[in-house]
Amino acid sequence: MTDPVALRFARQICAAREAPLPRRAMEVARSCILDTVGVTLAGMPEPCAQILLETPGIADGPGGALILGTSRRTSMLDAALVNGTAAHALDFDDFTGVLGGHQSVPVVPLLLALAEEHHSSGRDFIHAYAVGVEAEIRLSRAVNHHHYDKGWHPTATLGIFGGVAAASSLMGLDTDRTATALAIAASMASGLKANFGTMTKPLHVGLTNRSALLACLLAARDFTAAAGVFEHRQGFFEVFNGAGTYDEGRLFADWCAPWEIAHDDIGLKQFPCCGSTHPAIMMALKLRAEHALRPEDIAKVEVLPHARRLRHTDTPRPQTPLQAKFSVQYVVARALLDGTVRLKDFEGEAHLEPAVLALLDRTTARAHPDMADDAPQQWGAEVIVTRTDGAVLRARLDQMVGRGGDNPMTERELWSKFEDCASRSLTREQTAPLFERLMTLEGAKDMAQVVRQMQVSHLQRPQSRADQVSFAAASDQDVPETTWVP
């Protein structure tokens, strides 16, 4: 008889632990980890993370795992929950089109808690991260695009298996226990795209981190689970996808040859909103720069993304900052107005500014008629601007999954984003040294010391966005500018 899928999956994970990580894979992994730490620090003051911290029974028990950007320590499981939620709070984290979601946030938060507890090395941390990404994306190749189109949130429903792969690697679980952890996780996988645009979307990621880590901790203690949980007629493949909509063989093909983390489809986010909107943003910025467009010059804006990118970003009039992150109309209007899209554009009532609303009245979105659902490239968009003088301006991009592949963010761009993000939780004095440490993470001997650089005292920590403004003003007076330049 053929061995169960979970056991074969576990064998691949265990083999990947021993596979060498090429230089490019190491460098991309390090950048993704750095980026995830930055967006987690930026997300910690957000309501979704703060409400968790205020909820009785969450993160109020003893433990040594840090809630990033705070002085608070708790259990590994609760740290994974809160840090995981914060990591996705701003939707500013990296992503990949193959997964149809965000590959790092289901992995990095739980690994930070685990590595801190075990005093793991930076090199082992990076390798475990790469194994986690390998597992979740290989699984996505077996079930997408049907899984994605059906309404599941792959960052959570597939990312949980990446979390298991990463944690089991760092813990050194054997093949049988890794298979058990995967089987336990199959019953914990959850996340519906219907909750996009609400606090529940980042909560998916927090729960995914906690559940993946819990699955490994239980498996290590010989908890039991069904060996055939993936292929059973009421198992993961049939329930989450359905007959004829998955190919389990693709889960096992070509592991680490090359590593998924080195794939051109891995991209960092340059803009703090849904990655599906980024191709349209780039084309709006291109038109604005090339034609010196002013709001009064614009009679009409047409946004034509690939259909798969539009289904969850067609929000003509966002009513909340979170909805604005999933409005291709809003982000294109913002790009045309300001020449950029920034964190502050999704705070307070920025989405209700009169100039934005006036341009939204002239902006429409529809699926691009020439970008087929089954096309190999599904991250494209065209933006058409009709000027008041009747001239029609067009800009089209067929594929852009964030900044990666042959168009990576430079070290200076990484620093700029990291500084903007980390400064929302850390002092200015802490940010540059942390960036330097993360840029050389493979040389760290003890991850507990690295995580300690993400801690602040209670007096240092901004408690709200209003407090952050006064905190930043005080920092401007009391803390000298960093002299470090990447």
Automatic annotation (TrEMBL):
GO molecular function, one term: lyase activity
Domain MmgE/PrpD C-terminal as annotated: residue spans: 271-430
Alphabetized InterPro entries for the sequence: MmgE/PrpD_sf (IPR036148), MmgE/PrpD_sf_1 (IPR042183), MmgE/PrpD_sf_2 (IPR042188), MmgE_PrpD (IPR005656), MmgE_PrpD_C (IPR045337), MmgE_PrpD_N (IPR045336)
Stretch list, region Disordered: 459-486
Domain MmgE/PrpD N-terminal: 8-243
Family: Belongs to the PrpD family.
Name of this protein: 2-methylcitrate dehydratase PrpD
